[in-house]
Amino acid sequence: MSNAAVSELKNKEIDNAIHSEKGRLLNFISSKMPSIEDAEDVLQDVFFEFIETAREAERIEKIASWLYRVARNKITDWYRKRKPERFENKLMNENEEDEPLFLSDMLASIEKTADEKMMLSLFSEQLADALDLLPANQKDVFVMHELEGMKLKQIAENMNIPLKTVISRKHYAVSFLREHLRDLYNELLN
After folding, report:
1. Is 107 helix (H, G, I), strand (E, B) or coil?
2. Whose CA is closest to 166, among 174, 155, 176?
3. Is 101:94 a contact under the CB 8 Å cutoff?
4. Residue 169, number of CB atoms within 10 A of its CB
5. Cross-strand pairs, 101
6. pTM value?
């Protein structure tokens, strides 16, 4: 068989594998990623690596297993590269004419006036109530990291769980709290 014929055959095998596994692989990846856009980026990286490897290798045995293993590795790499964002640095509200507002801006600007004390008290109560709505494992991670200042790695060691689990729990807690406190935040500022 000529080199051109072998190359054409490999390209067809690559196309067939991509078309048959794309949907299931995207579902698998998106179940482990915070957004569909991030999942699509990881899927693209997986297929890029697949194409490069398939063209160089004589044959990839068990293509589906190979793709899922590479996808798991790419997901792990994505989370390792991503630096966890602290809750107080999260953008809370942004209008085109206003500058972006962060939770840390609001808390830092609270002085000692009666109104401001009331606002801080109200916000603290709402935060405590929202924290009580979280699953215990997410609440513990959030409190240790954000309120007690522990490092994520230290939390993982103390709780005897993988660092990725700590990061995931923190992410879910922050997402929930941001959504739960958004109305109060907007009300206090308007």
Report:
1. helix
2. 155
3. yes
4. 23
5. 93
6. 0.43
Structure tokens at 25: 């692989």
Q: With 0-12 CB in 10 A as exposed, 13-18 as middle and 19+ as buried, what is 83?
A: exposed
Query: For residue 68, which phi and psi values (nearest 5 degrees)?
Result: -70, -35
Give the angle subtended at the CA of 55 by the CAs of 53 and 59, to the nearest 5°: 75
Q: Answer for the pair 170, 142: CB distance below 8 angstroms, yes or no.
A: yes
121-170 tens-digit pLDDT: 777 778 888 888 899 999 899 888 887 788 989 999 989 999 999 999 99
- Separation of alpha carbons 171 and 52, rounded Å: 34
Alpha helix (H) ranges present in the chain?
3-30, 36-56, 63-81, 103-108, 114-133, 136-142, 152-159, 163-189
Domains of the chain: 3-81 (1.10.1740.10), 87-189 (1.10.10.10)
The pLDDT tens digits of the residues spanning 51-75 come to: 888 777 767 778 788 888 888 888 8
Beta bridge partners of 91: 102
